[in-house]
C-alpha cells in the first residue's frame, strides 16, 4: 500500500538510474563522435605507415652500402635476408647473415603494413639493386608504393591511372 502524507497526497519516489531514452541518447552521441574520429585515425595511421616505409628504405640503403663495403666480391646484397640475422644469433656473420640490418621484421620483408622486396641486378659482384615497398592492404595500410635503387633516390608511385611518380626529395607525395 503506497504511503500517504497527512495532506492526502502520495509520496513520489525518486527514480533510480537512467531511463531508456537517456541511455539511447548517450549511445547515439558516442556513435556520432566515433563516426567522426575513426576515419581521421585511419588516415593518420596510413601516413605513419608511409613515413615508416620511407625510413625503412633509407635504412636498407645504408645497410646495402655497408654490405657492399664489407663484401666487395659480392657487391650489393640481392635479398633482404642477407642484410639481417637470417635466423642466426649474429655471433658469426657472413655473406648470408651480415647482421647489418638488425630489424628482423624489415629483413623478413614486412614492416608497418608494407611489403619490402629487394632484387639484385643478377651479376657478380652485384652492382645494382631495386627495392620496392608496397602496402600490404592498399587503402588500409597505405596508399602509395615506393621504389628505390642503388642511387638512393626514393620514388613514390601513387597508383593513379596516370601512374604518377614523384621523388621524395622533391616534396611530392601521396597527397600531392
Plain-language structure description:
- The chain has 176 residues and is of the alpha+beta class.
- It has a single domain, classed as 2-Layer Sandwich (Fructose-1,6-Bisphosphatase, Chain A, domain 1), CATH 3.30.540.
- Helix content is 34%, strand content 16%.
- It is built from three helices and six strands; from the N terminus they run H-H-H-E-E-E-E-E-E.
- It has helices spanning 20-70, 80-83, 104-108; strands at residues 110-111, 114-120, 129-135, 145-149, 154-157, 165-167.
- A six-stranded antiparallel sheet has the order 1-2-3-4-5-6.
- A hairpin with a 7-residue loop joins strand 5 (154-157) and strand 6 (165-167).
- The radius of gyration is 29 Å and the shape is elongated.
- The N and C termini lie far apart (75 Å).
Amino acid at each position: 500500500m503506497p504511503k500517504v502524507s497527512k495532506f492526502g497526497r502520495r509520496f513520489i519516489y525518486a527514480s533510480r538510474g537512467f531511463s531508456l531514452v537517456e541511455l539511447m541518447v548517450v549511445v547515439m552521441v558516442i556513435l556520432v563522435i566515433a563516426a567522426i574520429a575513426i576515419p581521421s585515425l585511419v588516415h593518420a595511421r596510413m601516413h605513419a605507415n608511409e613515413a615508416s616505409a620511407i625510413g625503412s628504405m633509407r635504412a636498407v640503403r645504408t645497410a646495402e652500402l655497408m654490405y657492399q663495403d664489407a663484401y666487395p666480391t659480392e657487391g650489393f646484397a640481392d635479398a633482404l635476408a642477407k642484410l639481417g640475422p637470417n635466423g642466426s644469433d649474429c655471433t658469426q656473420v657472413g655473406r648470408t647473415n651480415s647482421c647489418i640490418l638488425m630489424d628482423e621484421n624489415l629483413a623478413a620483408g614486412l614492416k608497418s603494413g608494407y611489403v619490402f622486396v629487394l632484387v639484385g641486378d643478377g651479376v657478380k659482384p652485384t652492382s645494382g639493386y631495386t627495392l620496392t615497398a608496397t602496402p600490404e592492404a592498399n587503402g588500409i595500410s597505405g596508399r602509395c608504393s615506393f621504389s628505390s635503387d642503388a642511387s638512393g633516390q626514393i620514388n613514390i608511385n601513387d597508383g593513379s591511372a596516370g601512374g604518377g611518380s614523384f621523388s621524395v626529395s622533391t616534396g611530392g607525395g601521396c597527397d600531392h
